[in-house]
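Box 3.1 A note on notation
Throughout this textbook, protein chains are presented in two layers. The first layer is the amino acid sequence; the second is a token string describing backbone geometry. Keep the layers aligned when reading.
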Amino acid sequence: MRGKSRLGHDIAVRSVKLLNIILICIPLAYIWLTYYSKSISEYEFSKEGSILFVASYAVLYCVFIRIYDAFKISHVSASEMFVDQIIALFLTDIIAYLFLFAILRSLPEPFRFIVLFILQVITSALWCFIVSRLYFKVFKKRKAVIIYDSEHNLNEIAKHKQFQKSFELVGCYDIDETRLFADQQRIAWLIDKIKDVEVVFVMEIHSHERNALIKYCVENGISCYNEPKIGDILLSSSRQYNMYNLSVALVERYNPNPEYIFIKRVFDIILAGLSLIILSPVFAITALAIKICDGGPVIYKQKRLTKDGRIFNILKFRSMRLDAEKYTGAVISSGASDPRVTKIGKVIRKYRIDELPQLLNIIKGDMSIVGPRPERPEIAEKYAEKLPEFGLRLQVRAGLTGYAQVYGRYDSDPYDKLCMDLHYISSASYSEDLRIMLVTIKRILFKEPEGNREEDDE
């Protein structure tokens, strides 16, 4: 899809996205104008004020849509897109309801908001399934080629159901076939393979060949998806300077500004403290259930790594039997199916309740709300034997949740998890922290199939 055809595609997709926003806001505007605005008439909500309210609602909905990537028509299934939109709608409606509460200083009548949400759910469902169906009928599959140097994630892409719906794979080439070619021959071979396609997936090939492919794609209007290496991710955090009549990129160890460090720490303490108070009944019920289950200790302590390789004791509700590692030593758990997990352990692991005591680690300063998950020293040492860069994830405090936890899987390859953690470190910000926290809610409520966990209990 090049040139004008790509422009037509983009206009059509943006039009149906705009339609979604309009359809979602229509029932909100109706109940606001016919009921809620009249109930707060003493505040003299003008016509302009009502328009501002509805517009603010639309903007907030768009923010959550962006956080949950709920408009990715070509890359996710209709059902996944629908789930993402429902979460975005729920959060937007809650905030709108709290806005009314702040104005009225009493709880607004909730029935109409419940009806509003139901109407929006129906609208979203119809939009997602109709638009997804129409998209793949109107727009033909784009011809794609995969160029790879490692089969690391090859099947992950090529066999993905949504990939097969969106792309027609016309070639899959191992760059190792060119190992005997001269430099220019190798580049010519690569260009010959991609010159008649619309999309190229570049997977872990050397920078020289990759750069030649990217330049050709840009010059010829070909979309290029590049799987970055660790060096690419580190380079993405660079700062651009003009020095001595040269444009240079400064790459340094993670070094955020003091304001971000201070605000993040204050936010961690406040959120962890409030969570401890609100979830105290959950703590009490869980502790009682574990005690009744086998009479053993409720809290389990384990050595973990945090910023700069410092070792600390992580706190967890015990979910495994007492002799879990007596014969195996430190091994990665296979999840809820692990025979070492107790009955109550399966329940608290499913909803991540076993992680809640780490709120105390956050207040103490061992961890943050968002950051790479803390690894065991002995397991980190094993990973480092094959991945010397594994220690780069220790540039920041370990986190209760992280980029790899919300965008990866429990059984993701250690290299993939490292890349995800480094991606967070290279782009850490207030907005990225908020995005990860909000997407964590989705991962807890709508879990993917559980694979290996990076944490073990005894």
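Strands lie at 142-148, 167-174, 199-203, 223-227, 239-243, 246-250, 299-305, 311-317, 367-370, 398-401. The longest helix spans residues 3-39.
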